[in-house]
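Please, structure for the following, as tokens.
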Amino acid sequence: MLKKFVVTIVSLFSLTALANSPVPLVINGQKALVFINQDPPGTRCNTNVQIAAEIANAYRLPILILPQTAVPPLTPAPSVWYNGENIAASGGSHN
């Protein structure tokens, strides 16, 4: 009984965390890798585009590159997201 209760609580926290993701989690039924650029809308960071192309070729997953203005305020930029988790961000531990 206690185990079911704990699993339910953990599931609710997981769903809440996924629901609060500032970026899309899935594109065409696949988990997406999302790059957030610090550039103004309409311009792209060449490094992020090059990295995205290399990852897409190697792993065959959808890539989305967004300007910082397309995500909620206080979302770190530049940053990389996968499955709703921040993998790397400017000034972060994996940068």
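The longest strand covers residues 33-37. The longest helix spans residues 2-19.
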